Structures are given as structure tokens and as C-alpha cells.
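Quick one - inputs below.
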Amino acid sequence: MWEAIAGGMNGLIGGFTNLHWSNPIMIGVGCLLLYLGIKKGFEPLLLVPIGFGAILVNIPLAGLMEEGGFLKVIYDMGIMTELFPLLIFVGIGAMTDFGPLLENPKIFLLGAAGQFGIFLTLALALALGFTKLEAVSIGIIGACDGPTAIYVTSKYAPHLLGAVSVAAYSYMSLVPVFQPPIMKWFTTKEERMINMGVVKSSVSKTTKILFPLVVTVIGGLIAPMGLPLLGTIMLGNFMKESGAVSRLTKASENEIANIVTLLLGISIGATMDGRVFLKSQTLIILALGFLAICLDTACGVLFGKLMKVMTGGKINPLIGAAGISAYPMSARVVQREGQKYNPKNYLLMHAMGANTGGQVGSVMAAAVMLAVLKGIGII
Amino acid sequence: MDNWTFAITMIVVGMGGTLLTLWIMSLLMGLLKQCFPYKKEG
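Output:
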């Protein structure tokens, strides 16, 4: 009888005795993510489920990420199949208004310039000893686009998924902190004061409806490997602009996006098991990801300066910083910085154009990257 | 393929391809705007 009681008692303390030194640290990291999401308001929709998932997976013996565990089931169902990021993209497409971009299509190029950091960081990751596919997954943090980063990483370097997705989402939320100094370093006061005037409404409904179709077909033909990403974001936008399926549009931007965000967040958190996550490699990935997004901002602003010269001073280079995918945060930062130097400046809609260009640009960069990888026989 | 060749290929073809694709798309958007000009309602 005493043996049975001792065995039972042993079962109750098993969680404590099996605690690895890394588990309490990761539970602390999970709590930090919850704090950032709840108290600081940094991407709470993602950081809250990610933080909670990180806490869950670091409690020993629960087996949540073992075969049959509920987190493993969600992870296999949505991340390994790449379904969650794609469903999120349908919602993003349904929420995005590409009108400001269509008003001034030249601004699309800023969305491309904002992706330079991806490729420069990829080269740096290779130099630091990461494998080719790991370097691709690390570079893609520079897309500043969570679903794209998750899509590429889950496909080609799933063991880095936790670090890459945490970096992608947390840096996205830190855009208002790190972008203003970079914008200031690369521009003069005169450039920051350039007034781009008011955006006039000059895009017909037909153009708005045809835009997602044209982007899907042309983008898909150029980079077929990225069609799932491009096709889903454009499907969402096509439904929104067509106006014919408002129930589907609303479901995509509300119910579907909300449910998938919850499941995606908790699955990402579930990859943050301390034994796997707490490695020097993770810190290097976080540092490289930060560098990637800073390089994106710098290259976007520099491209903005080039466009300023080419247009005879009509473009305010600050809007180049919005050529990343952090929508609409980055555009708001540009608006705030522009008004600091010229209170009459109203850059928001121009920056929104660059920002939506950055959304398409990040997806396109990932698609082109996959097409090149396929072309050279890496995948 | 060695890392150096891979990195240069990705920077040149990857970034170049992204810029080229978005440039083509911006031209197509300009074309769409010309084909279907905005008309004020009413």
C-alpha cells in the first residue's frame, strides 16, 4: 500500500522533477510575450496565443507536442500543411485597400526596394554558417510579413519556425520604435519636408476588380512556386472589390482570420520548447532578423531618394520606409514623421500606397525566391 | 553550388526579379487605369 501511495505521490511531483533548466526560462519568455501583447499592445492578437503556447509547451510530461497531443495535431494540421498562413492571407487580402497604390502605380517600386534586406540578410546568414535553406528562411524575416515567413520556414526549415516567426511578428510590432531613427539618418530635413499634395480619387471600380486578377496571373506565371501566397491574398482582395460575396469577405476578414490567428499563434508558441529553442543559433536568428528589417527600411528610404531625384523632387523619400509589409503601422509612422518636420504635410495616403506595395512586394519577393531556388535545383 | 555563388545568384536574380516583376505590375496598373478611367458618379 505504501508503495502505491509513494508511486502516486511521485506522479504528482513528476512535472517538477522533469523540469529542464530551459523550461522556466521559456515560461518567463512566454510571460514576457503576454506582457508585451497585453500591457504594451504589441500585436496582442498574435503575441497572446504565442506566449500562452510557449508556456504550455514548457510544462513537462503534458505531451502536448508529442504524437496525439492537441498542439501537435493543430501544428500538423495547419503549419505543416501551410494552410494557416494561406488562410490568413485570404483575410489580409479582404482587409486591404489597394486604392492608394493604384492611384500612383510608380510607388509599387518602393514595395520592391523594401525587400532588399531579405537578400542581403540571406547572404549574411550563409556567411555565418547556416545552410542554404536555413539562410532563405532567416532572410525572409525581412519580408516583415508573418504569414510569408511562416509559409517559407515551415516548408524549408521547420526546425527554425519558432525563432523565425517570433522574430517576424515581434519586429513587425516594433516598427514605430526602430524606423524613425533610420528614416532620419538617411534623409535631410529638406527632404523630410517635401509635400506630396493630396491623393485624388482616380481609380475606377473596374481597375480595382481587375488588379488582383492581373497580379495573380502575371505573378503566378513569373513565380509559380509562390502562387499559393499571391493567389490567396489576391482572392481575398478580389472578393472584397467585386462586392458580390460580402458574406465571404466578412467571414474571411473576421471569423476565419480570427480562428486561424488563434490556432496559428498557439502552434508557433508550441515550437518554443526550451530544449530546442534556447540555443545560440536562436539569438543569431533574432539578430539577423532585426538587421533584415532595418536594411529594408534603409533601402526603401534610399530608393525613395532616387525616386525623388527622378521625379524632380515630387516624392518625399520618407514614404520609402513604408515599402515594407507592416501594414498599416509603417504608413502611420511615415505620416507622423512627415508631420514632425512639416505640419502641413499629409503623407498618409502616399505611404499607404507604398505600404500595400510592400505587402505585394514581400509576397512577390518570397515567390521569386522560391522560383529561383527551384530554377537552380535547391528545392 | 557553393555559398558564394548561391548568395550572389539570390541577390542578383532574386532581388532583380522582384524589382522587375513589380515594375511590370506597375506598368500594367497604369495601363488598366488608362483602359478603365475613373468616372465620377452622378
